[in-house]
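Researcher: Next entry in the queue.
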Amino acid sequence: MRTDVVFAGGGMVGLSLAIALARAGIQVVVVDRETPESVQSLAYDGRASAIALGSKRVLEGAGIWSEMADHASPIWDIRVADGHPLRGVSPLFLHYDHADVGEDPFGWIIENRVTRQALHKVAARTDGLTLLAPASVARIDRDADQALAVLDDGREISAALAIAADGKFSKRREEAGIGVSGWNYDQVSMVATVRHERDHDGVAVELFLPGGPFAMLPMTERRCNIVWSEQKDRAERFMAMNDADFLKELTLRFGDWLGDIELSGPRFAYPLSLQQAERYTDRRFALIGDAAHSIHPIAGQGLNMGLRDVAGFAEVLVDATRLGLDIGAPSVLRDYERRRRFDNVLLAAVTDGLLRLFSNDVPPVRAVRDLGLATVNRLPPVKHFLMRHAMGVVGDLPRLVRGEAL
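Model: Structure for this entry, 406 residues:
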């Protein structure tokens, strides 16, 4: 096969970029080892993701959002506070109200399963996009003229550019000799969905507990997605509990602000780490999404980082195509890395700093951070900037993030 771009991996970020490029007239082939049916099932991934306003615009520009909108729950308010399972919630807190910065919500909470369903539905009807799944890339041979993806079954796909979108344990990144820096956290993220008596009114809550952050994210149908980060040994004990005992521990932290709660669906556990690729590009080769970077979910920015990669890279490749340039040329790939690396490294540093500040129960540190939250809450200019940053609409924005066409 001959194409313009070949993707190794077809997850949420990779398939989003593939759709955006194909809609702009760039031929793409996506090779993914999972079947479309398996990645769209409830058993595959129990997580939900926060889609910031800027990321929603990216998905709109790629023609994907319309397939997700009915299942998206808007975030109208964000409340952040220190907490303790026994002492309760600190009276000092930080509150973001969307009305302070406009009419749009901060973002939306959407199940990853729903996002994948939308992506595969749109991909199936997008001209210029070929999805090979299940199929696996055995290796990618690259020279000055082309990238050649050799599949496990012997098929070959030649392209001007190969993109690795195969996750944080990327084999294609390793094959290209690109190292990573970072570390594993002594935390596991436990994920579950609960139903509750009262409506959440679009309020997202993040409590900073001694073992790690505990997020309650508003979903449709009177549900919340729980992202509970806890020390590994304790997380293993919690995950080994039966549903009734696990729900008791969950309720102790969730509180009664939404009335009685019950588990809705299976539980999942994910080890946490911070990782940054030493570079994002090589000869006729680039990394995107988790293959390039992964962060702690403390601020719910992982998928948003990947979608900003999509917006930045799509703009670079589409502009190069319109100018008649070689989309695999070093100058084109350097432009992509220049646009995305600083933003990704900065956000990784911020989330790591927040985690280290809040994942402890040292009294003097707790007092300082509580005072810091309360102080920011009383400084409108600072708070407004942080709110717009949470919406993903701060900085030098690609066209898709601005709501403009590619």
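Model: The chain has a mean pLDDT of 93.
Researcher: Noted, moving on.
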